[in-house]
Amino acid sequence: MITAEQKPMEEIRKMIAPYKRLLVLGCGSCVxxxxxxxxKETAMxxxxxxxAAKMQGEEPYIDEKTIERQCVRDxxxxxxxxxxxxxxxxxxxxxxxxxxxxxxxDDIPIIPALNTEFLGQTKDQGLWVENCVGCGDCMLYxxxxxxxxxxxxKHLLNGPCGGSQDxxxxxxxxxxxxxxxxxxxxxxxxxxxxxxEIYPPxxxxxxxxxxxxxxxxxxxxx
Amino acid sequence: xxxxxxxxxxxxxxxxxVTAECGPPKGADAEAVLQKAExxxxxxxxxxxTDNQTAIVRMCSLASCALLKSAGLEPVLxxxxxDRNRIALQSDILGASALGIENVLCLSGDHQVFGNQPQAxxxxxxxxxxxxxxxxxxxxxxxxxxxxxxTKPPDxxxxxxxxxxxxxxxxxxxxxxxxxxxxxxxxxxxxIYNLGRFEQWISEARDRGLTEKAFILGGxxxxxxxxxAKYMKNRVAGMDVPDDVIKRMExxxxxxxxxxxxxxxxxxxxxxxxxxxxxxxHIMAIEWEEAVGEIVQRAGLLPRPEAE
Lengths: 222, 308
Fold this sequence. Notes:
The structure holds 2 protein chains of 2 kinds. By secondary structure, chain A is of the alpha/beta class. Chain A has 8 helices and 7 strands. The interface of A and B includes residues 159 and 170 of A.
């Protein structure tokens, strides 16, 4: 999933200050899973903004709504009837959601309420960790299911570096050394010999070669 | 050093080699580079010039090496993959060779978060092993990554670093093997304080035939104080300073600790000289280049072989 965290209240208040009628728009997908922009967080943020406005002696016109996915056209179109009532939308979608909504309703500002962080997993209650960079050419097989690009601080394909100690990364001892994990995993599957060969430089053209990436699937098109 | 033999020849002819280190200044001060390096003239076969070590902005290694070269000293150009992508790295390799620099040490580099630019992007487009392989192909096959030919290949003696003390221990020799397979001609190791663990590592390397394929220079750093020993043990990643070394430093009075540090260093070199598979020593006297002359003198490594 794509993870995100809410921006500081002060920053949000500053961005919405010029707008009288505001729609606070949640997203029921990834950002709901990571407790940043789902229905609950949207309600909480909207009510906090109303309260803050009242404290300033203002008459807030702040509504809230959550759609299932802010990054999918069909869901965004559900807003067609109501969006005209507002001067701006405060989106609790990820960066993709904010831009998708902006593209469809291009005559009002869509303001981000979240900082989008990374592709990761929910590891535990209240704990999300990064484990994929979306490189476009998955190498997890070779590394025992642990991605060194996402999880090694130096993105080494031929690690570990000299800073791995007691299974911890030198950059942050809270972080396990990805290479320690890779070696342990491959050892378990009796496949450590995969690491004897030298992995060539990564072909980043799949990631950066043609600007922003897109997937075109004619079989999926009407 | 203007009349000393090159590092490559010294090693190839079976002499126990000596290299030292010189960190460029935090300023555009050519004199500072030369003054430091001058302390090493005639004492060592080559001088490593660090590349923004610990991710702190300093005069670039390439320019510093050029300054050394023009003063008749032999530099080892340290290059880290932290700050440059494959285009810049290959380009700098060509430039280095064109300037007459003969040795390069290919490194990952300390992570940017440790330095004075923690907001920087860490490039790490190549890793150190891929970089070694790239330089090897440039030199031996005359091609860059992707296969395009060079008009003139660079002529460089290729070095790599190894940390015998990092974890996972059992994988350390595998990584050394990969660096040598990638094309490393010589290896400089992390500072050795734990001789037992180093001995185990070099014997594993010998068993795999690695010490026949590349020259291994054991790294040493003279301790200035007991405090420095403790700092290195606790704060520097991948450093193994055993408690008995710390104790030894602590038992001497503060004003004698530098002398004790030099003594430990000399004793370590004496042990390394006797160790099969060790071809030389790399002395990293951090901001203490003055100590190098005394260390090599007392370790019986002077005079250095002269140019033929």
